[in-house]
Design brief:
single chain, 4-stranded mixed sheet, 16 strands, globular
Length: 341
């Protein structure tokens, strides 16, 4: 599995349509954020955009036509879909030593069957394999793209709270799940963190907690307030990372990133939570750019500066994502890098 910063042929997104995720005027507000993300990614690479029904097609094309030159950088896919979380239902690509690509069509069950129906989203990897004549593997395991992150050199980050959750693969032990990651993603070493963020209805995806930014550096979210609901879990994960080694047995450089506010004031999210998984770790690597979610004026500028220092050869594109993360995900959750399309 390549590191996300390796050059893509495109990025997969799906236009937001699910009014259960985005009730009332929230759908309009999330569309406004979404179009900013589309424009940012399209400045770097081709965007492959799923339009899952006629209403999505009408709203998307209308907004995209208002931005000069944007439509020429988008490939539309008129196929059925359930929601916009392309990271989790999209294909997970792998490469061989000669640069040939294939995709893994892992099972997707909407994070343990929480949000049916999900069969249309589950069919997306097969659609791309068939349309672009890409070799497809079917590992036979439930695995969301947001639950794994790799340095591209055989080391993978994940969480026990997701991959060992009985709502995914109850018939598999930890050792058996590791073997799937080794065989189907080409991993040599698995680093297991513990729990994810409060309010994360995925049960704790790694892409809200800790991410590789190069092959030997990991950024990780930390809460500075001991009363923060995420403080203990993030501290435990930090200690695990400090003692972890890379594929050569060398320690990683760990860069701590402050946690933005995650409590929703005066209301609850669509799944009844008082918290959202707002995280600066939920960024996306486009070709030559980092698309960075921002949420909190106390920390945004500091985090932007950290990312600029970590990525001197990338443009940092910050996008306010408070409206997007209300639906329990942010920029990384709605994107999936593509190869060979």
């Amino acid at each position: 599995m390549p590191a996300e910063w390796e050059t893509h042929s495109g990025t997969l997104l799906s236009w937001p349509v699910n009014e259960e995720t985005w009730p009332g005027k929230r759908l309009d507000r999330v569309e406004a954020v979404f179009i900013q993300i589309v424009e940012a990614i399209a400045s770097c690479e081709t965007v492959h955009l799923i339009l899952s029904n006629e209403e999505a097609a009408k709203r998307a094309t209308s907004k995209i036509k208002q931005i000069q030159g944007l439509e020429d950088k988008i490939v539309y896919h008129r196929i059925p879909g359930n929601d916009l979380w392309a990271r989790d239902f999209g294909p997970i690509f792998v490469k061989d030593g000669r640069g040939n690509v294939a995709l893994n069509d892992c099972g997707y069950n909407a994070w343990g069957g929480k949000y049916p129906p999900f069969s249309d989203d589950d069919a997306v990897p097969s659609y791309f394999a068939n349309k672009y004549k890409i070799k497809k593997f079917t590992p036979g395991i439930i695995l969301e793209g947001g639950s794994v992150d790799t340095n591209g050199k055989g080391v993978l980050l994940t969480t026990e709270s997701v991959l060992l959750n009985p709502n995914r693969n109850p018939h598999l032990s930890k050792a058996e799940i590791e073997q799937y990651l080794i065989e189907w993603l080409g991993m040599e070493k698995i680093i297991w963190l513990k729990d994810g963020l409060a309010g994360d209805d995925t049960d704790g995806h790694i892409d809200d907690i800790s991410r590789f930014v190069n092959e030997n550096t990991i950024i990780t979210m930390v809460a500075t307030d001991e009363n923060d609901i995420n403080y203990a879990a993030l501290q435990e994960n930090l200690e695990i990372l400090k003692s972890a080694n890379d594929q050569f047995g060398k320690p990683f450089k760990i860069v701590e990133i402050p946690m933005p506010v995650t409590k929703v004031e005066g209301e609850k999210t669509v799944d009844g939570s008082e918290f959202v998984p707002a995280s600066y770790a939920n960024f996306y690597y486009a070709n030559g750019a980092v698309i960075l979610p921002v949420y909190d004026k106390r920390f945004d500028d500091k985090v932007i500066k950290i990312f600029e220092e970590l990525h001197p050869d990338h443009k940092i594109i910050p996008i306010p994502c408070a409206d997007l993360v209300w639906g329990q995900g942010s920029i990384h959750c709605i994107t999936q890098q593509l190869y060979g399309v």
